Amino acid sequence: xxxxxxxxxxxxxxxxxxxxxxxxxxxxxxxxxxxxxxxxxxxxxxxxxxxxxxxxxxxxxxxxxxxxxxxxxxxxxxxxxxxxxxxxxxxxxxxxxxxxxxxxxxxxxxxxxxxxxxxxxxxxxxxxxxxxxxxxxxxxxxxxxxxxxxxxxxxxxxxxxxxxxxxxxxxxxxxxxxxxxxxxxxxxxxxxxxxxxxxxxxxxxxxxxxxxxxxxxxxxxxxxxxxxxxxxxxxxxxxxxxxxxxxxxxxxxxxxxxxxxxxxxxxxxxxxxxxxxxxxxxxxxxxxxxxxxxxxxxxxxxxxxxxxxxxxxxxxxxxxxxxxxxxxxxxxxxxxxxxxxxxxxxxxxxxxxxxxxxxxxxxxxxxxxxxxxxxxxxxxxxxxxxxxxxxxxxxxxxxxxxxxxxxxxxxxxxxxxxxxxxxxxxxxxxxxxxxxxxxxxxxxxxxxxxxxxxxxx
Amino acid sequence: xxxxxxxxxxxxxxxxxxxxxxxxxxxxxxxxxxxxxxxxxxxxxxxxxxxxxxxxxxxxxxxxxxxxxxxxxxxxxxxxxxxxxxxxxxxxxxxxxxxxxxxxxxxxxxxxxxxxxxxxxxxxxxxxxxxxxxxxxxxxxxxxxxxxxxxxxxxxxxxxxxxxxxxxxxxxxxxxxxxxxxxxxxxxxxxxxxxxxxxxxxxxxxxxxxxxxxxxxxxxxxxxxxxxxxxxxxxxxxxxxxxxxxxxxxxxxxxxxxxxxxxxxxxxxxxxxxxxxxxxxxxxxxxxxxxxxxxxxxxxxxxxxxxxxxxxxxxxxxxxxxxxxxxxxxxxxxxxxxxxxxxxxxxxxxxxxxxxxxxxxxxxxxxxxxxxxxxxxxxxxxxxxxxxxxxxxxxxxxxxxxxxxxxxxxxxxxxxxxxxxxxxxxxxxxxxxxxxxxxxxxxxxxxxxxxxxxxxx
Amino acid sequence: xxxxxxxxxxxxxxxxxxxxxxxxxxxxxxxxxxxxxxxxxxxxxxxxxxxxxxxxxxxxxxxxxxxxxxxxxxxxxxxxxxxxxxxxxxxxxxxxxxxxxxxxxxxxxxxxxxxxxxxxxxxxxxxxxxxxxxxxxxxxxxxxxxxxxxxxxxxxxxxxxxxxxxxxxxxxxxxxxxxxxxxxxxxxxxxxxxxxxxxxxxxxxxxxxxxxxxxxxxxxxxxxxxxxxxxxxxxxxxxxxxxxxxxxxxxxxxxxxxxxxxxxxxxxxxxxxxxxxxxxxxxxxxxxxxxxxxxxxxxxxxxxxxxxxxxxxxxxxxxxxxxxxxxxxxxxxxxxxxxxxxxxxxxxxxxxxxxxxxxxxxxxxxxxxxxxxxxxxxxxxxxxxxxxxxxxxxxxxxxxxxxxxxxxxxxxxxxxxxxxxxxxxxxxxxxxxxxxxxxxxxxxxxxxxxxxxxxxx
Lengths: 457, 457, 457
Hints:
- In chain A, α2 (55-81) runs antiparallel to α8 (222-244) and α5 packs antiparallel against α15 (392-421).
- The first copy, chain A, is globular, with a radius of gyration of 22 Å.
- By secondary structure, chain A is an all-alpha fold.
- Chain A has helices at 6-37, 55-81, 89-118, 131-151, 157-181, 189-207, 210-213, 222-244, 251-277, 287-292, 296-300, 311-340, 348-372, 379-385, 392-421, and strands at residues 38-40, 127-129.
- The first copy, chain A, contains 15 helices and 2 strands.
- In chain A, strands 1-2 form a two-stranded parallel sheet.
- Chains A and B meet through α2, α8, α9, α12 and α14 of A and α1, β1, α2, α3 and α8 of B.
């Protein structure tokens, strides 16, 4: 490629050296901190061996199935969802893979730190980690993957590395505040989706430039769309597990599963209606909507899937948010790009931002409703579901604003730093949305986009 | 495209408006009926909170894992299995997704209605739905997806919508009759596979025309075949869960898992033998067989996987039906298309029709055998497995005919209606087996098939 | 194709007839032996029906989830991992599918035979098989799939058939010896990975020839790489289940899950560092490494994931072996091909050979450490984890050598036989790494590789 001047090459090499050194240091620090501070669960060593009755086995039996499902969502689901771009499949899968693995490690320590503060433990004591610590790591990785969705195609590996280290600190700050506030957020509607989306959009504001906006490679391919549907479907199918993983066992867990599933069917139906209603030529469906807005019903249940909301309202919530999400893709995403210079590649604002916000508000309403209708829950259940008691609605409202604020402010600071970092190994115009910038590509790697008319049919 | 006359466009637009209005009305009716009639399980609200000991938690722990697996089969498995066509991937995945989501919602109500009749409950009372209700919805969606397999490439969205509403009513009619008859059908061999296949074939008879039969786009692509194998493999791997999901716990569930798995290995081996024996040039394997006939061993166990059939016979059943299924693809499918004008796109007759029928007959024999050999089962187990007692073989034989009859008669009526509906937004010759009829396609959407010789090698 | 001379055709037809006859005989023998010898678990028939309390139900509840995950790894994971080749997708998926299904059947009998010897049972008695028998079958299939990785693109179906019958006999010989020695190997680090890799490499030595080494079709395609990543990710996500499936319940199982997961994150991070450090142009990532070396962290935990190794060391092990694995791909694989004439298509030496060996050695060290530090385990736990007591380190060391020796000697004998078998239906130069040798291919099957420069970017 004629633009591969020696200067560019050398900038990419510098980026590489810094990337490798930082990632290596990250890993060494992880190993040291884990070695001196993290241990398996307290009774790990001196238990009499279990007959399936030990508490740790119960934890494994109850949680590991959900852990596995969420694992599939983070690594396979998010990874493949982003493969729709015609020339960016390696990067979508590769960076998702690396950054999620990093975040999973890093999260245990970050949350360990906040958790020790919550429990007033000295940091000199060992931190005993459990299946739930690992699950939290996956949730945090989910949040980072959501943010990545807005940046897809516009980042260098080094920028991703930076975000993978910084964003978890903010993610768990939110979780820490939430614990202090006694707000509830069963499937991470506030802490994962709302925070992740607005963090990503804020960062995106710094990384959107005219080269990215005018890149012809920001386009789907036919087989890429099929790969993306594999991601979509696994996210869709596993979403009930996502929202129910840490729900209190019993009825709340059952409701979390069923409400999420029903809500997802609602958003799927809404997607097909609205996508066709506002569609090309007046009758054609759009794959972008099917890949994304069908999932909005899972996000909108993110805060309150486990509450005593009946099946009817659960479907309604999915239906409404699915419609809103498609409208967002049609009207809002181009508007944000044009007016605010925020080029949201995957449309995370439509899939995570708005649904997360609506879900958070719905949870405030549901909490207020529960407080005023004491017969909705038994006393014991009320206590478990609403840890802040009569103050619950206010606490959750506060937490919604905090999640949003931490996301936006953190995103602005991160975005500013990432913009500077992006100068190292800077992407040329042809490298936006293209794997060849940082990957050895196969011989049938798609040729440069020549403006083929996608509307020939 | 020169054939895009204004007239055609306007017909497609009319189809779209009717589609959107009907789907919207469907969703509104669902929300209203769910809101007034459906509630979570009875004790949902006033239980003392569970310590993992509540009945609802037991239901979640026992059933949710199977639900998740069946979910993967319906949405991912069936969806991707149909992606083999070179130009029909969006439609295969999209309609599967939409219709299955619809059916999952609709099923709860339809079964609720029949179930209330069974239990002599007044419809004014709430219907309390459980994890099993949702699972039934997935089973019903499986049945609709089977029928869809015969129609692949020949339908408009509006026709699919009609089928998604009508077929569940017949599916649950079968289940209702089965409950009344006390027939058994652990993995839906009769109610899902046999019914679904003959319903689909009957509808197919109405929708097969010369445009469909002479379409050059009814052809696989290389990457499409790989995607389809992902569907095949997930169906194959999850099939033990499908047949064991509602098996009585204990030995019956264990046998359902193991018999299904062993039977699947048998049909896989048979597929490779028979595919090569009757193959092109005398030695070449055919992907169509590998994608489909390998699964016949799961279908054939659909009625009786949980019975006390030993591992040897289970493998034999899979082996025989796998052979039959491949022979069906080679000889019967072309014959049905030529002589009876039934163009069975996915070959559901070979994968679901014949294996379902053979499995149903095998179950009758197994029941008769059990009745005459009292030492095969303990008294308690006999009572659970054969609810009709000494009458079981006759009841299951009757149910086989009923499932077949409901499928064929229902399919004829539905097919007649769907043919009329198909006049709205009628498919042109170039739109058969082609996404561009109803989807915005990517720029690398495969060009029109030019009769490249697939036998060049 | 001009090289399709009648002579070649007839040789392929002969291969086909022998293949079909052998596979048919295999299946008939299986059915006979299963029918006369294998039964479901002893109490299968005369139990009072369970209230979720029967031992068989407990087995299902505890094991089936892991069985399902390992099932996904064997059929989907290994199958798709090998789809990276541009023209060999059908074969990768097809042979994986067939051979794994065969091995799953065959394993129950082979292990039944050794197991009866271990238990001093007469073969005239029924062999009662359980969920664990089936799981062992999948483990054995994993071993065969590993070996297949080295041979990918260089074998005829008949050769694969031979290997699928012979390798399990050796695999279970290893397991038999291990049981006698009381060595431990929780995730098959020695018996699956180490044995499978060196068996495959030994066979590979016989099958590597200049036609294979100079084939231009031994190259990845862009979409093939994306498919392969689906295989990689499912292997990665399910690996904790693989290593924990038969771990003693309680803390050992929890540690097996967590150590494996953490180790995998370590090898993932290492892969990205080392791949870039030694990379093309000094800054480009290589998909081959991401597809394979990321998994090395799971292999290295194969022997000892369940021991009381803390999280820090688990990450370190993954990080070190991930680095070694990438270096193996860069330096060792070409060296083995050039100097030793072992063309290891998938690089199984880097993914299974070396990590298996390192993991085996680490287990010897861990056992020695445990023996010298009695406070690491409670007495009860020590007894379960180290069945050979104070002799454990020596026994595991011995087993490492035995696994290696059985693999290499067995591989040499098998390779010699397979080379002779390969003369039937011999692959021509153009048929190496190409589906059209034994499959009917779709019309868009990639054209012959014309030496397009993969480094154009």
